[in-house]
């Protein structure tokens, strides 16, 4: 009998090698892919990221293979990536959302399958229930080998060292976000710092 996968906040979490397995990650990815297709989304691709937990890059590749098999392009992060960077990347690529393989504050023996919307925020509770309802048994999962999917352009490995290459832009938006008067900005040098 397949593991009952129940979505909570942003998705599903479980103990690695007990319920959190490659097959169950693939099942979640199939449920998300089905949800996207039924809602006429996925045409702009999905970012797939992961954190530093055990085998994160392999779980991410497993999820990307399922998306690719469903005709949804996966932008697969090339290294562990913080959640805010994954959210930023959705907006930067104008993607239809993301899969983030992380269990946040849970112990290192756990991992999770979290989803994000096209606006880089949480999918509403009704959407999470709809994704959960579409999670099939493993026999219902479609999968395209990563190498073949890359040849077909359905998986693109991306490097997210964006901040390293983009100079800081100080404007009214960043000033509002920082909310401080203790701010020193040197536009000619492309840096800023908080003065304590």
What characteristics describe this protein?
196 residues, alpha/beta, Alpha-D-Glucose-1,6-Bisphosphate, Chain A, domain 3, 2 domains, two-stranded antiparallel ribbon, 8 strands, 35% helix, globular, disordered C terminus
Secondary structure topology:
Blueprint: E1 11-15, H1 22-38, E2 46-50, H2 56-69, E3 74-77, H3 83-93, E4 98-101, E5 110-116, H4 125-133, H5 146-151, E6 155-158, H6 162-165, H7 172-178, E7 183-186, E8 191-194
Parallel strand pairs: 2-3, 2-4, 3-6
Antiparallel strand pairs: 1-5, 4-5, 7-8
Order of helices and strands: EHEHEHEEHHEHHEE
Strands, total number = 8
Count of the separate structural domains: 2
| Helical amount | 25-40%
The number of helical runs is 7
Write up this protein.
This protein is 35% helix and 19% strand. The chain is α/β, with parallel strands linked by helices and 196 residues long. The strands form 2 sheets. The protein has a 6-stranded mixed beta sheet with strand order 1-5-4-2-3-6, sandwiched between helices. The protein has a two-stranded antiparallel ribbon with strand order 7-8. The protein starts with 10 loop residues before the first strand and ends with a strand.
